[in-house]
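Let us work through a complete example step by step.
Step 1: write down the sequence.
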Amino acid sequence: MMLNKNTSFINHIGQPKKIKSLFICMASSFLMAFLLSTGASSEFHQRERIPLTGKVLPFDDKPGPYTYQSVIIHYKSKDFASIEATLLTPDSTDPKPGLIFVHMWARDRNTFWGLPEYLATYGYPSIYLDLRGHGNSNFPYDKPDKKITISDTDKNYSGFYMDILPAIEIMMVHKNVKEKQLILIAASLGCPLGVKAVAQYKDHFIGMIHMSPAVVYFDVDCKKDLKELTHLPTFVILEKTDKSFGGGQKFFSIPDQYKTLLVVDKIGHGTDMLFHNIGFPTLIRTWMEHIEYLSPWLTKLREKQFLIESR
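Step 2: predict the structure and record it as tokens.
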């Protein structure tokens, strides 16, 4: 795996009052040790100029042992937006956490560039969708032909989180998903939208991964919702020359239990980072495996903290 030489990690665990866990503290250094063991490289794999619409591209990262089924599905949001999504089901009998992907503004679901497919080879079921007005998804009946572009001047996106709710419900009952073990993977505008959706099903999630997030993007403000998710392990990836860097730091400051910050340099905003093919799929997978393993202990710590604070 390769990462930019200016890559840096910050790991943090907010420990419950009067509770200390040597096991969890030892685990906090896991990602740093993983980065050092891979030998970060300055080699930069630029495919080509990054397009606004995506497709599944192969990564240099070694795929896992599983094949998978890929199916395009359609559903309606609560306000009748028509949403197209891709559902990936690995050919595995071992249940894993289910993944919900939410893409960037003015992009489409395929600008995760094959990350869902890579993770499916390691047994992770997932769904990735086009938000309304993006890709092959449409607004409700009053403006079905409207499309969101980088020239869009009517930046009213606060209701787009409704497009994500049915995707969460689909993964909640997916036969290959561990019960109440979902992970959000989002980028840019997809981050606050994803947070607002996750907050409605917070007991079903064990973690979140955010690329170039902010508490507020355009008219989407997720501060209240993010404060309801402070217990969720959170992995934030920021690009330090990006205009959203300050907003991402503020976003990272809100979760207070287990969180990891990765700061990179000169590789772009959101899922543009993935397009460079420098090892992010392996890094993301390893973090998820870490959280999947820690999840039962983190749950027990939270329950014990609640009992202590309620006395």
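Step 3: interpret the result. The chain has one domain: 8-309.
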